[in-house]
Amino acid sequence: MEYGTSSRGIRKKRFILLTPRILESTVRAKQEMPDVQDSKSTPLRIAVSARSLFDLETSHAVFETEGLESYTKFIRKNERKPLSPGPAFPLVKALLRANRTIRGEESLIEVIMASGVHPIMGNWIVNSIEHHDLDIPRSSFTSGGFILPYLQAFGVDMLLSKSMEDAQKAINVGMAAAVMYDTEMSDELLADEGAIRIALDGDSVIFSDESERIYQEGGLEAFQRNETMNAHVPMNEGPFAPILRKIARIQKVTAPDHRPFRIALVTARGGPSRTRVFNTLDAWGIEVDEAHFLSGFKKRQILAAFSPHLFLDDQHTHVGPAAELMPAGRVPYRTESAA
After folding, report:
1. 20 to 30 A Cα–Cα from 158, which one of 43, 57, 115, 181?
2. What is the spatial distance between Cα 78 and Cα 129, in angstroms, rounded to a whole number?
3. What is this structure's pTM?
C-alpha cells in the first residue's frame, strides 16, 4: 500500500457564425475524418500511483520511520519544489503528448492519479503535475485505503503502481496491472517525442498463463509438445490483451505514418512455439509492430535496442535487469482467491 485538481485550466465556450462556406468545409472535414466514435466511447484509461509517477521515496521513508507528524512537516517544507520523475513518468508523458496529436475533441487516452498517499501530499503532487505540464485532471488520494474500488468506479483499464498489494488486487479482478521497479531515468527517454514504445512479454501478460503452467510443471519438452499440438488453437487472453485491443482501435483512427504506438512482443518462446503466437494474434485481430522470440537469449539486450517507455513481464529475472536501463514493471499472477 502506498502512503505518503490537476491543471486548473478553464475551457471557454466559443461562438462561431456558420456561413454557407464554413458549413460546407465543416461537413467535408467530418467526411474526411476517420470514425473515432467507438474509441471515444471507451478511451484507454490508465491509472498511475503517485510513487510510480514521481520519485516519492524520501517522503515515503519519512512517513515509515518518523510518522505522520514529521511526514506532514516534511511535505509543507517542500511542496513547492517540483518532484522528480518516477518510473511511470516517461510513459505518461508520451501518452498525454499523443492525445494532443490525435484528431477529435475527446481524448482517446486518459491518465488518472490514484494513490494511497495521504491527501496532505496532494498539493505537492498537483504542483508537480502542473510543473511538468501533465494533463491529469482526475485524482484520488486514500490515506492508505485500498484504491481498487475507485479504479473500478473510474473505469480504469490499467494500473501502474509501486504497491504490490494494489497491483495484485487489480489483477485478481481482471484489470491489467504492474508493479513498477525503480530505474535510472535517462534524459534521452524523458525528451523523446517519438512513438509510444511498449514492450510486453507473451505468456501471463498478453496471453494467459496456461502454457506457462505447463512449462513450470512438465518442463520444456511438455511445453513444446503442447504448443505443437495446439498450434492452431488460439490461446486465452492474458491481463494485457484488452489493452492491446484498445491500442489497436486508437491506431486505426490515425494515419498509418503517424500512429502513436509501437508495440513489441519480447518473449522467451522460440522454435515451434512461435506458430501458436502468430495464429493467436491473427485470430484476435491484433497486430504488433515487432515480435522477438529469444529462445533463451537474454531479454535485456533486445529491450535496450528497442528502448521502450515501458517493459512488462511476469518474471523478476527479466524485469530486474531491464529496470537498470528502462522503465519496467512486473505483472503479478492472478491468485486462486480471485476465482
Report:
1. 57
2. 15
3. 0.84
